[in-house]
Fold this protein.
Amino acid sequence: MMIELEHVTKIYPEAPSPAVSDVSLTIPAGEICVLIGSSGCGKTSLMRMINRLIDVTSGSIRIGGKNVMEMDVIELRRSIGYVIQQIGLFPHMTVFDNIATVPKLLGWDKKRTRDRVDELLELVNLDPDTFRPRYPRELSGGQAQRIGVARAMAANPPVMLMDEPFGAIDPINREELQDEFLRIQEKLKKTIVFVTHDINEAIKMGQKIALLQEGRLVQYGTPEDLLSKPRNEFVKSFVGTDRALKRLNLLKVEDAMMTTPVHCCLDDRSEMVLEYMLCNDLQFLLVTDPADRLQGYVNLYDLRGHQGIVGDMVRPMTLTVTPKQNLKEALSKMLAYDLGIVVATDEEGILKGILNSRTLISVVGVTYDERGGHWGNITALGRIQEAMGSGLDS
Amino acid sequence: MSGTLSFFIQNWDEVIRLAQQHVYIVAIAVIIAILTGVPTGIWITFHPTAARVVLYLAGIMMTIPSIALFGVMIPVLSIIGHGIGIVPAIIALVLYSQLPIIRNTYAAIKNVDPSIIDAGLGMGMTRAQVLLKVQVPMALSVIFAGVRVAVVMSIGIGAIAAYIGAGGLGHFIFMGITQSYDAMINAGAISVAVMAIVADYIFRIIENRMVSRGLRAR
């Protein structure tokens, strides 16, 4: 369900300036919209107006076309999942009763509630039989927030509000929870309003990011927009001077890789491959089997004077990436070999493409220009092919 | 001491009769005190000004010596013909019980983590549901502690009620004093003490049954 905010303003009686000031934005159905800003910027107030834990002073909020102010407040909240940083599990209730809170409020029968609780526990990767009877004090922080998320999703609400849900969790578990949550969201496609103050989390989680400053919406767009086209100095400083590196997180290998790398086959004659490499000024060449599965690479030095097939001389290449991984992971693997490339294969090991160091540097370099941080017109693909021209392209 | 023992043996029926009277007075008083004190304690969590006034008054109550309170009530309750006896005794115990019960209820409800209340409201519980399904169950153990204090204290003060003819185990104590009969005094005092200890123990058991396992310390 789409969420539309129109000229939303919140003024607290004693406060000198509005907590939220004339914010208008539309959150498309099925997307995660991150509200971000430093503390006191109004991001939490804005979120809490959506389920009317705070009333708007002026402006309107519509969910799926319906004005929230005209809906029954209790019904409205029961149709919106709600997750908070402090988790807020009821300590006197078991995990089962916690997750079953909203289904019970809605009067579901026992069997339906029970089935739903088990389904949710499995969804958040916790064994139902182990965790159902536990009390919150018997859970770790990460487990507790998994239950918090499961509880919010119990009645399958189309909309969820999440207020720094992973903020109190240690960095390692946080990564894991974020990944898990994105995997769940991939399936469920809920419309999510996600509050955080961590720009890295925002870039990772959000399809849209709304940056707020002193109650005003400064910039609203995709993470890409914020990193490459920061609207003003505030946005630029907020996303950080290392925003070029952050882009590496954002781009997938498949966006940047060259998809038809030259390669030779295991049973090609070494002499022919050597000649080909000399003609094209190649230092090394990828080797695949007849089914296009990556076997490794050969280099010029090894092939000199060798009689036979390249399969005898192939060096293994085990650190590869998949097209779905991001460029940061690709960069770290690239550094493991001194070839200056990293190879992308799919799950079966079939060669999908390659990335070279120039590609990555161009991504970082161009982003990092001082004229306001424009990328130029990189469709990453175009740029990379140009950079590859002198290398392996045949 | 052997005198006290033989007193118990010779007057066992009387001991039981007075103990029953004592339990009856205390039980009625504590039931009324719970029914008034707990709702009052909850109510004042929503009204900070009322909270200050109520806790202040309940505090003042505690400073009035029980003998004085009985004395003050005699002329007032004489109007309805209950100047002495069981009625003023129960009223006094109800008044004394208010402070521990109201104060503990108030503090326990107030101390529930605001984020838990926020979670409840955010999920679509009504204010009443948050109160009854979240705050009260979470506050139960502290409320119980207040009730336990009220019970033990009422058993003790209840002994003095014998002075205004309400009966109970205090009867032995007052009779013993006027007759200089040590064994009788001891019998009364020991009975009251034992009753207080037993009552405290019973309430602990009830508390353990009623308070969620999730709230008990590891």
In short: The interface with chain A takes residues 113, 115-116, 118-126, 129, 134, 137-138, 211-215, 218 of chain B (CB under 8 Å). The radius of gyration of chain B is 20 Å.
